[in-house]
Amino acid sequence: MTSTSTLETNPVLISSLARILEIEEGEFEKRCKVSVTSISGGSQFSNVYKVGVFENNEEWLWFLKVVEGEEMVRGEFYSLKAIHLSVPHLCPLPYCYGPLYPSAPTTIPSQTTFYDDSPTMPSLPLPSPSPEPLDLNPTTITTPFFLLTDYISPLPSSPSTTLHPHQRLSYKLALLHSIPAPSEGVPGFPVTTMCGSTPQPNHPLPGGEGGKGRECWREFFAGRRLKAVARRCPKLKTKSKREEGKDVPKLVERVEREVVPRLMKDDEGLVVCHGDLWSGNFMKGRIERAWGGTGGSRRGRDSREVVDREGQDDGEDENGNDGKKRSNVHRETITGEFVFDPAAVYAPPLYDHGIMHMFGGFGGSFWSAYWHFRKEFHLPVPTSNSPSNSPPSPFKPLPWDIQEQPTSSDARVKIYELYHYLNHYALFGWTYGLEAEKLMRGLLGVEGARPGSGRFEVLG
Q1: Positive or negative CA dihedral for 105, 106, 107, 112?
Q2: How far is Cα 53 from Cα 416, in angstroms, rounded to an integer?
Q3: What CA–CA distance (Å, rounded) separates 266 from 248?
Q4: pLDDT value at position 389?
Q5: How far apart are CA 109 and CA 164, in angstroms?
Q6: Does residue 175 register a pLDDT over 60?
Q7: Residue 149 and residue 77: Cα distance in Å, rounded?
């Protein structure tokens, strides 16, 4: 673990905070004091900290994650950015990520990637038949990298009903799952993401006849999720001599061949999915966001307050006159339920439902509100700008998932749950392997299941 005292003077972190607040680095060090505190919530893969910047009795907070290797923080940075661009108050804003060098070579600014560097998400990578991620960099595997985001101050536990509906996760997740992904119908994601420590290949599949393969969700899920994670799973143990069918890759091949075509359509509507939304990856809290200058690219605010911040008496002002320098800091307070630690992908909404049902934590009232909002966001809403004699908006048939509202017992949810059982087996061992085998046997026993029908039973 990097010591907090080392982080408090790290030139890359200081430079990043100065850029966020738009203060020249020399002035930042004169005016501001940085405090770094280790906090709980890390994992075997990462260390996490609360970063405070103090100036004139004001304190601004950020969340800092430090890991070895670039892939985890790069994937999380772009996952948070994709979610934030769609629903700004659903997740912390990711300010920047990059290598956390102990010294400050002149190349540092170009190696730190900031949210404001581009107003949009990068394009998807080129299609490739490679089953492995294409953008893993083995030369950085032992280099510490950092990610700097909003800090979520936890609030006392209380029912979601104490919040305004628009502050609740059910509303914000339904909104995220109602906005088309920025990929023109092609599943994938611009970078490799990490689910735990498992790298998830996200580059599109090569196009088949007429290029349709690139847009086929079920082929992407089978190849980039089920097959990819199966290669990381050891062979399942068995208590009998009958080894046939106990090998995870063989079972996955059968699921891919016999189950996936029955449960998924090739043209599922794609949205930005969180990708790892279990109950430990969301919380009720408050974000106190701060940034300098105009802050124009940080759109979607609940409130905005501009504070006239007076610096120390440190020489010339911006016009070259002696006296006190003054600068503006913008701040806003956002209260609600937030998600974090995403491993995003452009996928159908049900992709998120798999792990949400796997570990529970989302009760009946949550799902009732979620489906209500999904339906509300899908139906056309008349606006005050519409002429009184204008024809009604064309009716949009409800997607099948909104019509049927599949639950945890539905095979079309279980197929996504399977991926996470396989991943947990690869990461944590045998207990999850037993559950994955049981789940696959049950899915292979589902007869005639297609979108529109797919109740699930675990066969003996």
Answers
A1: positive
A2: 42
A3: 25
A4: 53
A5: 41
A6: yes
A7: 9
